[in-house]
Amino acid sequence: MTTLTQIPEQLASKLLQIKAVALRPNQPFTWTSGIKSPIYCDNRLTMSYPEIRDLIAESFAAVIREQYPETEVIAGTATAGIPHAAFVAQKLGLPMIYIRDKAKGHGKENLIEGLVREGQKVIVIEDLISTGGSSLKAAKAVQEAGAEALAVLAIFSYQLDRASKAFEEAGIPLQSLSNYTALTEVALREGAIAETDLELLRSWREDPNSFGL
């Protein structure tokens, strides 16, 4: 039986297997922000693999059962967090909502779709944490609706200090099922990267703005 302590490396291995995560320390990717990155993560691919998406859903559900048993609503971030929030809500038998990146420009101009009541305790499900800006925006939308954002739970985190500090300042807990550290360790063990790549990969996490310069 898989325990939560085993999930980071187990999930990292699955993400590498289906190429949801790619590591290119010597040929970095370029983010929209202009940051050079040795890693590219597309967790949308997990939707196409029933075994992996169920591992993710059950892991999220286990975290919520153990650490946030008072949860009343599961919220998904648009767009990649929506399917995973649906899987988790189904497992826990809880209502689900989703949060747009911006309010609709027509109709009721909703930012949150679905029913959330004032005072309800909400867990926000996200697919990926990079700098944390969009995830925090979603959690704050929950708060502005009069509900309580208990935490943001993500499939994967790049573990950037900028994100950690932003969540700490906002007073909202952040957890991820897997992370950059677990991924690099698994990638080395499985031969996806060389020992000589490790220092380069670690340097990116410490100072992403200077990487590749």
The ordered string of helix (H) and strand (E) elements is HEEEEHEHEEEHEHEHH
- Runs in which pLDDT lies below 50 for 5 or more consecutive residues are none
Biggest beta-sheet profile: 6 strands, mixed
According to DSSP, the number of beta strands is: 10
Instruction: Specify the overall morphology.
Output: globular
Distance between the termini: 45 Å
Give a structural overview.
The chain is α/β, with parallel strands linked by helices and 213 residues long. Helices cover 38% and strands 22% of the residues. It contains 7 helices and 10 strands. The protein has a 6-stranded mixed sheet with strand order 7-6-5-8-9-10, with helices on both faces. Strands 1-4 form a two-stranded antiparallel ribbon. Strands 2-3 form a two-stranded antiparallel ribbon. Helix 1 packs across helix 6 and helix 2 crosses helix 3. The longest helix is centred in the first third of the chain and has 18 residues. It starts with 6 loop residues before the first helix and ends in a 7-residue tail after the last helix. 39% of the residues are buried. The model has no long low-confidence stretch (mean pLDDT 93).
